[in-house]
Amino acid sequence: MMKIAVNTIFLQKGKLEGYGYFVQEICRRLALKYPEHLFYFLFDREYDPQFIFSENIQAVIIPPKARHALTFRYWYDVSLPLALRKIKPDIVIQPFGFCSMTTKYKQILVVHDLAFLHFPKFIARQHLLYYKWFTGNFIRKAKRVVTVSTFSENDIKTKYPAANNKTDVVFSAAKESFHPIPYTRQQQIKVQYAEGCEYFLFVGGIHPRKNLMQLLKAFSLFKKWQKSNMKLLVAGRLAWKYGNLLEKLETYKHRKDVIMLDYLEETELADITGAAYALVFPSYFEGFGVPIIEAMQCEVPVITSDVSSMPEIGGDAVLYCDPDNADSIAKQMMQLYKDENLRTSLIEKGKLQAAKFSWDYTADLFWESIEKAVNS
Predict the structure, then answer these.
(1) Do 101 and 139 meet the contact criterion of CB atoms below 8 Å apart?
(2) Are strands 319-321 and 302-305 parallel, antiparallel or unpaired?
(3) 360 phi and psi angles, rounded to 5 deg
(4) How many whole angstroms separate alpha carbon 203 and alpha carbon 56?
(5) Residue of 37, 255, 289, 346 with fewest CB within 10 Å of its CB?
């Protein structure tokens, strides 16, 4: 029997996003598939019982709440090591880009991407300094380093040579709730959220790196070229540096056609994705880009950026644009709108591309990484 400790501080009901979903989907599968092993889920506060997926999971609360630089360091380097001494785990899974520098126990570090190096202006200064100062140390300390795309693997190895010979690619995936929905249900969703109109969809936090400003410019061009009642739905929480965007939105010419939806629970987001005319995801940088797979799994065509991991994840099943060029984004929106054969072709290719990624496959890859770390 192995004892597997998992840092689960971002498993919070109603606040799950990329990192949290990654941990939830993988660890639920591993705990159910390997009932002979004991999993310790390590929380920094009271937890919701929905995250205790099976009888071989034991929850441990380790204070204090870790949410800024000082409490993070204290939690990882003081509180966590003390708790691990009692558990005596065979491996500690650190899925949020940080690990403990003071524990003697083997750790697997998950680094989704190095966006902070490529776009430092898109991250708060204190967070940027923290990442720059510690990431190299974390990578050297970890027994294995896991990342979510070949692009990110190559990026990490280039920037941090200590990752060579101990990095594994464990792809992300879309949740099973993202699937095609019947036409009648699509119409109901359009009435509920988009005044009965077709809509382009953007999914992601309201953050400069997600490039919503260029998307709004592109949507204006689309409206200028094609007089239609098409809407733009934005599904994502207000994350960071969103004030300028909200200010511009107040005087935006097509403000009535832009619908801000804030953070959505999984089932609601799956429905809205399944009824969309297309996903437009012109992000500047992604380690994986889960919304791309979610849309393709819903049989919804995708327009995305031609940078970072997105060409790897989208393959030949999406339309690519230059994220710095609103005209490039708008032309792809226009092309998709005017060419129904192209849209049908992308939907069919998208189904094949999405099938390459699944959480079961991801969990198996992660288990292989655990075995490498434990046996090293």
Answers:
(1) no
(2) parallel
(3) -65, -45
(4) 35
(5) 255
183-354: CATH number: 3.40.50.2000
Give me 186's structure tokens. 């699509």
Give the separation between CA 16 and CA 27, rounded to whole angstroms: 14
Q: What is the side-by-side strand order in the sheet with 302-305? A: 258-260, 231-235, 199-203, 278-281, 302-305, 319-321
* pLDDT, block means (10 residues), the chain with 376 residues: 95 77 94 98 95 97 86 94 97 95 98 92 81 94 97 97 97 94 97 96 84 91 91 79 64 80 87 98 94 97 97 97 96 96 97 96 97 94
Kindly give the pairing relationship between strand 167-169 and strand 144-147.
parallel
Q: What is the pLDDT of residue 244?
A: 66
3-state class (DSSP) for residue 6: strand
Strands (E), 191-277: 199-203, 231-235, 258-260
CATH fold, domain 3-173+358-375, is: Rossmann fold (3.40.50)
pLDDT of residue 126: 79
pLDDT of residue 42: 98
- pTM for this structure? 0.91
Whether the CB-CB separation of 54 and 18 falls below 8 Å is answered with no
Domain boundaries along the sequence of the chain:
3-173+358-375, 183-354
